[in-house]
């Protein structure tokens, strides 16, 4: 079949499995924004991902089937399969056995983390492809027999290094390790001349040419969604260095977990993702290279080990997110695919070296060769079997349905002030790429605080008035000549449209409170002029069935965007009840109105709690408190014993399920008093019955 045919066959097999599990609709995370940027030929979030954007646009135009999201998901699956081919080729060439190549490619490609992010419209599968490409080129360089051949491979490698940096910047650690290794080898061979160095530099810069797309797109300003202004050198450098996130940081937050905690979490996840066998075999490869035991080209083993440790240490140092929070933990772990790929290569070499050593000791090559294939096949098959049900996203429409529900709930010509990745990216995708609700206008709250947003985007938002160049709580003229406006001013000049916030409002600007109130609207809230009269019964009816949501509560892993979307939809069911209860707790509310609000809130709580056997744990507490308030109202139509029983039951369930609540002791004390009150009530009822009983 030949090496190319073998690698292609492995890639085709991986592609087949990926395609069977491919999501048909929009995934979570940055997918919506990346797809929208490609569809509109805009600029994605820093550092811009120009290569991915152009490839995604090509896929959208060339693939003649499926939704826009499906086409980009398909592209990523094919890129992931190509990465598997390169890893197989590298390990099989370096070890001399296809079984080791199959083991390395299969264990990496079908790990949960790799699989999940290789079938989603994200930049990770392209990054995995570049990791595979750089390891393959490193092997070709080591195998080169003449200066001319080395020079040619160096030029291709320099171009690929530049090209790889047009996607995910984390690969710069691998690029630096490989460049230092190549230059040291060229220096020893006397081939590192000024002319050769200049040629390699030009090849590297040629690989970076996709970055020219950023100023071109920004200059044309045709995209309805784009990020930043790259028409100036300062704007381009700001975007490339991710200054809006913090250069070399994962996020703006500075309150991340310690470097030690992240490294320990990486080791734990590595074992869970790849099994204990993979790191053990990787260690065997390194020890075999150090001892010169049946390991070919040990310098490459040292290089790959250096890449693995350098990247792990660097990322743990700069990953400033709190991994105690499930969603942030999910964000951090995605970046370990880059180290897992190299670990899998080392593990494949370790597998081969162990069998080679056994073969030298026993001189029974045929049986050992068969055994190596059996071990590799069984382990890869086990990887597929254990992860398929988790990674099969072919029927996952959760994020897509979240966005459709939110958009469909909006009245005609509404303004939606977006906040956060989930509503921002998902609604943006549906609105721009699939043409959903063209009458609605999407405005990003955080982006409005950036100096480039309104000059770039305002012309694409007809019907919305912006009373300045930039959102800021303090209105005035900035030194650069731009005019700031606050939210109150924005709402005042757009009073001809209904305005909603999704999800939540920017905390830094309280000016809206002077003349507006927030009324619950599912996962969102509506900004309503304070003078508008509020009819609680009418609002409860209006918001009761905003969404058509059928996903079971708690069915998704807490580190996924599906879990976040599902949580938002479930909590939205109780928002109106919570709002009405909060109004009833206001001291200025009259007794009659208070009773009406408590009753409405109680009835809504009771309706949704009894309709769902499994639901968010805070519902128990909210419903218990509502029952207790109704008990104090003494309504004639409610049985006080039933109210007491429900209060005790749901407080008890809450305490059992929310063991970390700091108010737990107070709740337990309240349960004790409520039980006494129930006993007294039953005694009283029993006494009344005896008094009325016939003698």
- Overall 3D shape: globular
Biggest sheet descriptor: 5 strands, mixed
Report, as a whole number of angstroms, the end-to-end distance. 102 Å
- What level of helicity do the residues show? 55-70%
* Whole-angstrom Rg: 30 Å
Main sheet: which strands, in order across? Answer: 2-1-6-8-7
The proportion of strand residues reads under 5%
Class derived from helix and strand content = mainly alpha
Tally of DSSP helical segments = 28
Q: Please give the number of β-strands.
A: 8
Question: Could you name the ranges where pLDDT drops below 50 across 5 or more consecutive residues?
Answer: none
Mean pLDDT rating: 92
Nutshell version of this structure?
With about 700 residues, this protein is mainly alpha-helical. Helices cover about 65% and strands about 5% of the residues. Helix 5 runs parallel beside helix 18 and helix 8 runs parallel beside helix 10.
